């Protein structure tokens, strides 16, 4: 098998037809399939969608189980958030909570009703069949749902506060929650199992008040329904940065701490590669080998162990690892591993990933790309390991020279808040807090996407993933030197 023939799979789990052939059976999968966790949290590229796809297959194979997937399109979320009334008078958590209750309950009933069309049904099954017939599809359109509840609410009041103490009662009535909930719970009590999976919730999310209230309303609705019946299991897949922001603005953060936080260890990432190599060897009729990893990758890259070298150039996320190795193997039109080709793949990959990092945090820190462009322009071939005084000088220069006109950046510039900018770079994963060896062990850099850590920033390192993109040189040695 030529290395260039290896298919590492699609970047998006939804577009990978072979995903289940080499899915990594993680503890996260086992806990969620046992319905121990409702919230799955992870950064972009950590495998949330792959996990959802595998769970969907698992639950669909269970008897009397109805699996509903809710993954709104970008345009749907934007249409909701652009509605003026939702930006002001009605865009509150409790309003969205009831639209989500209506969405989930209607989808559950429609799934049952679709299955009993054309045969005799009674009581709650008959009600569910009527729901499915009225919808003429198996899922309620999210935009139509919110628009309808908003229309009904506006017909009664000019703003939610006018309902006074009857607010929740009025919203339950407007959203038909009582009737929908009664029949869904009756079906669940008779043995029906409902699994409702929410993904792609960051599509169109813009960190506005309305977008955050929309998501908090979903968290509340999911918790309420699961509390009323263990047979109704909403599971929400959410980006880690979005989750962190939501927990900072809700009074109910303590109710949303039982999360499945997706983290990957070195050995797990290697297993992801080896599973795909094994799959490709079978597809191409290649015989078994003792060392799957070594059949594709060189033992070392320069003086570094290849496994360490690869993993260090990711933010411990499968997508990044697969993108890097794909760039490598596609350039090798032979049968033998090449350390030269692997090293050569790093430059283009590093540039992609810096762009992707800016995209990932574009709602919190728009135009961040301009900051890194200024860094590369003003500090070419500077060290990737910096002491605090040198880092401060870099930040002050870039605050003065970066062409960014955004509120978050203007506030930092106005206050010359170097600490805030360093904290942002740490939050995104661009830099790590370097801690010298001592009683606790050897020296190392701690990054925000790893274990909990309280950074001091006496010294920092730019993450290996981004060093080529920022045109850095080797780390400093000996006495600190001023930057030119």
Percentage of residues in DSSP E strands: 5-15%
What kind of sheet is the major sheet? 5 strands, parallel
User: What is the rounded Rg?
Assistant: 26 Å
Helix percent reads 40-55%
Number of domains: 3
Low-confidence stretches: 477-484
**Assembly annotation:** single chain
Let me know the number of strands. Answer: 11
User: What is the overall shape?
Assistant: globular
The strand order across the widest sheet is 2-3-4-1-5
The whole-number mean of residue pLDDT values reads 93
State the secondary-structure class: alpha/beta
Kindly report how far apart the N and C termini lie: 50 Å
Number of helices: 20
Can you describe what's shown?
With 484 residues, the chain is α/β, with parallel strands linked by helices. The chain folds into 3 domains: 27-261, no CATH class; 266-361, no CATH class; 368-466, no CATH class. The chain contains 20 helices and 11 strands. The chain has helices at 27-33, 48-60, 74-81, 84-87, 93-115, 123-135, 142-154, 167-174, 177-189, 209-228, 240-247, 266-283, 306-312, 318-329, 339-360, 368-378, 388-401, 407-415, 418-428, 464-467, and strands spanning 39-42, 65-70, 193-198, 232-239, 259-261, 300-301, 304-305, 385-387, 431-435, 444-446, 459-462. The strands form 3 sheets. The chain has a 5-stranded parallel sheet, sandwiched between helices. A 4-stranded antiparallel sheet has the order 8-11-9-10. It has a two-stranded antiparallel sheet with strand order 6-7. Strand 6 (300-301) and strand 7 form a beta hairpin. Helix 5 crosses helix 9 (177-189) and helix 5 (93-115) packs across helix 10. The two termini are 50 Å apart.
């Amino acid at each position: 098998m030529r290395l260039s023939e290896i298919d590492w799979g699609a970047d998006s789990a939804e577009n990978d037809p072979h995903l289940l052939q080499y899915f990594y059976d993680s503890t996260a999968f086992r806990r969620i399939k046992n319905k121990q966790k409702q919230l799955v949290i992870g950064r972009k590229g950590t495998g949330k969608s792959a996990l959802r796809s595998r769970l969907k297959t698992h639950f669909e194979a269970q008897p009397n189980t109805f699996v509903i997937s809710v993954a709104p399109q970008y345009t749907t979320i934007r249409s909701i958030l652009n509605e003026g009334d939702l930006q002001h008078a009605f865009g509150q958590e409790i309003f969205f909570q009831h639209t989500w209750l209506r969405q989930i309950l209607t989808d559950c009933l429609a799934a049952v009703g679709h299955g009993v069309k054309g045969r005799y049904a009674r009581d709650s099954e008959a009600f569910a069949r009527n729901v499915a017939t009225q919808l003429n599809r198996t899922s309620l359109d999210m935009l139509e749902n919110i628009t309808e509840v908003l229309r009904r609410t506006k017909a009664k009041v000019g703003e939610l506060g006018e309902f006074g103490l009857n607010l929740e009662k009025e919203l339950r009535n407007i959203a038909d929650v009582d009737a929908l909930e009664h029949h869904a719970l009756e079906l669940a009590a008779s043995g029906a199992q409902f699994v409702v999976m929410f993904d792609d919730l960051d599509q169109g999310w813009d960190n506005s008040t309305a977008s955050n209230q929309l998501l908090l309303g979903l968290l509340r609705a999911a918790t309420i329904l699961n509390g009323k019946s263990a047979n109704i299991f909403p599971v929400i897949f959410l980006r880690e940065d979005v989750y962190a922001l939501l927990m900072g603005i809700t009074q109910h953060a303590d109710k949303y701490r039982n999360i499945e936080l997706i983290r990957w260890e070195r050995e797990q990432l290697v297993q992801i590669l080896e599973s795909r190599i094994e799959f490709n060897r079978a597809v191409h009729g290649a015989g078994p080998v003792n060392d799957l990893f070594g059949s594709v990758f060189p033992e070392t890259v320069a003086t570094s162990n290849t496994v360490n070298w690869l993993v260090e150039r990711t933010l411990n996320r499968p997508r990044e690892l697969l993108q890097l190795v794909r760039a490598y193997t596609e350039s090798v039109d032979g049968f033998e591993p090449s350390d030269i080709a692997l090293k050569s793949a790093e430059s283009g990959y590093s540039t992609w990933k810096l762009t992707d990092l800016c995209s990932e945090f574009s709602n919190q820190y728009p135009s961040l790309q301009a900051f890194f462009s200024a860094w590369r322009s003003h500090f070419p071939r500077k060290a990737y390991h910096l002491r605090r005084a040198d880092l401060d000088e870099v930040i002050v220069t870039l605050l003065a020279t970066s062409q960014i006109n955004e509120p978050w950046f203007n506030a930092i510039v106005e206050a010359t808040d170097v600490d805030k900018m360093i904290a942002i770079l740490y939050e995104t994963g661009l830099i790590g807090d370097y801690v010298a060896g001592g009683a606790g062990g050897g020296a190392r850099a701690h990054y925000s996407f790893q274990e909990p850590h309280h950074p001091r920033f006496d010294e920092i390192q730019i993450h290996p993933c981004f060093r080529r993109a920022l045109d850095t040189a080797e780390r400093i040695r000996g006495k600190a030197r001023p930057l030119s």
